Amino acid sequence: MAADGDAPPQSTDGATGSRRSRESLFGYLVALQLLTKLVSFVFNSWCMGAVEGFSGSMLQATSFVDRVLYYREGFRRGCLHGGFGFDDKVTDESRTKLLKVARMAFPIGIVATIVGCIHELWKQKIKFSDPSAAAVFGFENPYVQAILINGFACILELLAEPLYILSQNLFLLKLRLISEVVATLMRCIRAYILLHNLNMEMVVVFPLSQAMYSSCLLFAYWFYFLLCHVSKLHCVFPRRVQDWMDYDKRLWQACMMFTGQSLKELVVQKGQELVPFRSSYLDEYGVVDRLGSLVVRLIFRPFEESNRLKFAEMASGQTTQTILSLRASLVQCLKINCLAGLLIIAFGPGYSYTLLRMVYKDRHCDGPTQLLLILYWFYVISLAFNGTLEAFLQSIASQSQLKMLNNFSLISSVVYVLIKVLLIGYAGAVGLIISDTIIWKDMLLKISYFMVFTRRFFQNSYAISIHQVLPSGWWVLVFSGAATIISDMMVLNKESKETYWQSLPLHVGIGTTCFLLSCAVIYPREKALIEKFIKLHKHRD
């Protein structure tokens, strides 16, 4: 049924199959992020030119699903951290053990969905005791329709969650790639039909599209596992209550630990919602968040996921040779992330206006949106370091160390949210980014903690310094960044459409020259690192 790289490993060759899949993991993750995010980005950018308020409505719709289902990241990380093991043979018993813990994400998710729906109804000031409550159950209120449809979409995804976790631990990479790409495409098609053919309320369009996405995922995972018979699926949703309590306590504790960390991250990400701000702020921030997160997901998310598996596999033994190998691998990953982050900082600010003009035409070029995007590029490099360091810590740390991380993160998150609330009230949408870029309270505290942990783990004598992480020739990127910013200010004429297009070729030419100069300086100095990275993450299927 599945292609070679996607066949579920059996008990006789499970380790070999998993190892071969891990070698191609980075290629699949890049393809997954590239296809799903680009499809969504192109569709959303096209719709923004035709539908007023599109950005804010979409951000509001997706934030509900994100809040309700964010906890499941804890189950995914916990099952990956304490699941099959990298050298163990995968058997029916080990799959059943994993599913008995993974299925607990469903009842917890049901409770979270109900609480989330009630909270959203309360925010809309809908009282069920009023005579108009009949309109709620008659789906006459479009906001109520959107909330309930979003809740239904969450339940559909929760039904597929145990099998998603199983496929993650079996390294069924092609299954994830195909299912998510098809689901994303179907979501965009459904949204287009509802917006342009049925003239439906925009607040309802996105929940209906999300329900289509969730239905596709549910069908894909259940169809695959039922057809391939790779596991006994009767244990996913048992009929008797006592059967739900039959699970591995140690694996459950790992999932709960990571779930606590995921909830903390949710508080940080949604902290700006503690203060009300105008819909124009939401539109501006939505534009920047989509553009910036597209870069982050395409470049750094595959790094983080593949590094998480790589570190966990290498940390199976605490010998001197293992520690040295881990140190070398961590330095390489940090240097690659630093190089990518510096490239974004060097060329992002100087071409923010050009990017906004190219994607949204005249819609979001003027005003604070360009400033927001420039600030976001500086935020990216902190995301790069944080993702790799967090993947390293979560892969090798003990449970007590992870608990200490959760306690530390909780304190830093409270400080972060308070600062973000104050900045939103004072500076609106700009405050959302400033709190993440100029202050960096939570991110800097987390990175500092990670650096202290790595210094202790490597016993000081093998500690990593900033000089080792900086790529050779990094100074040329500083020069390129200054040159492109000056070009954006002095060469690119933004007064009219005609002068803009006349000056654009010279502006692009300056950036191209700086990029080629940067490659000519950095590549010879870091040739071994780049070639080793490409070889390490080469797609071999």
How would you describe the overall organization of this protein?
Belongs to the RFT1 family. Pathway: Protein modification; protein glycosylation. It is found in: Endoplasmic reticulum membrane. One of its GO terms (biological process) is glycolipid translocation. By secondary structure, the protein is an all-alpha fold. The protein folds into 2 domains: 259 residues, no CATH class; 194 residues, no CATH class. It contains 23 helices and no strands. The longest helix has 36 residues. The chain is globular. The chain starts with 13 loop residues before the first helix and ends in a 5-residue tail after the last helix.
Number of helix segments?
Answer: 23
Uncertain stretches of 5 or more adjacent residues? 1-23, 129-138
Structural class: mainly alpha
Order of helices and strands: HHHHHHHHHHHHHHHHHHHHHHH
Main sheet characteristics = none
Overall mean pLDDT: 74
Number of separate structural domains: 2
- Distance between the terminal alpha carbons, to the nearest Å? 16 Å
Care to count the β-strands?
Answer: 0
The Cα radius of gyration reads 24 Å
Q: How much helix is in the residues?
A: over 70%
Global outline: globular
